[in-house]
């Protein structure tokens, strides 16, 4: 199916609406614009739907996914609650009692698909030691300034 703007699959409601819209005389371009897919995507869907005698759902081809939606959600939740965790650590935490946990690569793919790339945030102080000392020194030097002294600057 054609993809535009990151939309991967049509929902069941979208599929029904496309079939009804086409029966009502809407063009493929109009349907493509309405549902955010290409004209070729609409055409392929309608051909596949016609070949299956009107059935809109079919068995997906390819290898089945190792993780389900709940697993994916738990991976993302764990990563967001502790962004310093690595993919192997997330795998250990989420699939602690699983008889066959997914690979580390699968966890990385799920994180990448959600927009979380493989970088850990660096721990660093809000202000460096050098700048902290310089600020304290400056504040002590200007502690007893009068309003006239400040007016010379402003």
Q: What does this 3D model show about the protein?
A:
- With 154 residues, the protein is an all-alpha fold.
- The protein contains eight helices and no strands.
- It is elongated, with a radius of gyration of 28 Å.
- It starts with 11 loop residues before the first helix and ends with a helix.
- This is Transposase Tc1-like domain-containing protein.
- InterPro entries: Homeodomain-like_sf (IPR009057), RNaseH_sf (IPR036397), Transposase_Tc1-like (IPR002492).
- One of its GO terms (molecular function) is DNA binding.
- Its main location: nucleus.
Task: Give short descriptive properties of this protein.
Homeodomain-like_sf; DNA binding; 8 helices; mainly alpha; disordered N terminus; 0% strand; elongated; 154 residues; Transposase_Tc1-like; RNaseH_sf; 55% helix
Please give the structural blueprint.
Elements lengths: L11 H12 L4 H8 L3 H13 L17 H13 L5 H8 L9 H10 L15 H13 L5 H7 L1
GO molecular function: DNA binding
Organism: Caenorhabditis auriculariae
GO cellular component, one term: nucleus
* Total beta-strand segments: 0
Low-confidence stretches: 1-6
Largest sheet: none
What fraction strand?
A: under 5%
Rounded average pLDDT: 85
Gross geometry: elongated
Fraction in helix? 40-55%
Q: What is Rg?
A: 28 Å
Main location: nucleus
Protein name: Transposase Tc1-like domain-containing protein
InterPro entries: Homeodomain-like_sf, RNaseH_sf, Transposase_Tc1-like
Organism: Caenorhabditis auriculariae
